[in-house]
Amino acid sequence: MKSEKLALSKNIKGVFLFVLFFIITIVLPIASYNELVFVFEALNKHPLIFNEKSFSACLILYTPAFAMLTRLIFLKVKNIEIKPELLIEWYKLCGVTLILLLISVPTYTYFIESKIKSEGYTVCNSYSTSRGADIWVTSQHYCIEKGYRVSEEITDWLKQQTTEPTPEDVIKKVDELVANNP
CA 58, 63, 64: angle at the middle one, nearest 5? Predict the structure, then answer.
């Protein structure tokens, strides 16, 4: 009875891992594509402010490794023997993926940031988040140093503006938000 519970528990864990990595395998290319589309749409619309995650677009490179891992988990759940050659292929695929990431992330970052700068944007380090998003603004006048405490609120406010606010308007709004968020 105890071994049956253990086997059932392992099987449930295996099925959970299979479903998790299957979903990740499907979502990664979609997330990568959405990030690229978001950045280029922002450049076409030329808003006052937008965020960009340089690493997100390169997530598509993980897809083959996660697809292979999903296959390995599936074979394990179905109690099909996993041949050592298949594991070696997966290790090689992970190595190639890592090498591609080491090359593509800096390359993509350089080109996308160059494109954004050529459109007249500058990065606002005061509003950039710890989640890895760079905040780009059309003018450094919108980038108020003490705004880091209310960066989410001030970026939302700037995104909602239909006309370009003056630097004084932005400073006033930052002061107001800081006063309301102790």
Answer: 125
